[in-house]
Design goal:
heterodimer; A: mainly beta; 11 strands; 0% helix; B: mainly beta; four-stranded antiparallel beta sheet
Chain lengths: 120, 108
Amino acid sequence: QVQLVESGGGLVKPGESLRLSCAASGFAFGDYYMTWIRQAPGRGLEWVAHISKTSAAIYYGDSVKGRFSISRDNAKNSLYLQMNSLRVDDTAVYYCVRDTHGYSGYGDFWGQGTLVTVSS
Amino acid sequence: EIVLTQSPATLSLSPGERATLSCRASQSVGRYLGWYQQKPGQSPRLLICDVSNRAPGIPARFSGSGSGTDFTLTISSLEPEDFAVYYCQHRSNWPPYTFGQGTKLEIK
């Protein structure tokens, strides 16, 4: 079955960096666009970053542009999010999300999320 | 960036009643509008793609309608497991594919 398992979250100070990973299994990872979506505690969903199957097309949300970098390794069935210059308002659960085949942009499978806390 | 505004913020209904949730876009998204359900402590679940196409395994009581800037998610007869938070999301033109702020459907 499809599984997406995030890791790498934790407590960091403002200005520090963190790298999230997502291990995918149960499907042909290289055939799907992937997305990172986050949710601050008690808040709604925020679209963060999106990467095409071959990494040729990459997009970011306005609040993370220039600070975050999405990448993937299809040979390792893995998705990554490098987060630099972290701010308090980056505190959130970060979800690794598989794009729906045929409806790119929607997420049909979500990981359980990894919590990133930015606090001094 | 396209802004999606959902209404109402909270909807209080009883099981068996009909629920109507709204999502309005700041500019036209055509028919590129989807819906998710999220229960406490769980990841969101995709319900509907492109206005009215139910995702696999989604019951027929969930339906969607609309186009352009105004969209509706309808739950024809509420089951106890339907009480949750619902989000709309667009996939129009280029990213970011923003979300609405959510509607909480609670038991009356």
